[in-house]
Amino acid sequence: MTNVYSFDGILVFGLLFICTCAYLKKVPRLNHWLLSEKKGIWGIFYKAAVIGTRLHFAVALCCLAMAFYVLFIK
């Protein structure tokens, strides 16, 4: 189990947040509702979705590396 207050917990949370926002960008209703704002506090969802779609290969590799770390090393 990963603690949110540790560095690896923050990394896991960030990766899951980016992956979730990138997935929600593919759903048309949620894309318009959640990701329409590009500024302010709601802009964080849009920016995470953009990172997840543009850097999908790097994000996927980071997710695999973090899964290996959490399952086998920690």
From TrEMBL:
InterPro entries: Kish-B, Ksh1. It is a single-pass type I membrane protein. Its main location: Golgi. It is found in: Golgi apparatus membrane. Keywords: Golgi apparatus, Membrane, Signal, Transmembrane, Transmembrane helix. Involved in the early part of the secretory pathway. Belongs to the KISH family. This is Protein kish. The gene is TMEM167B.
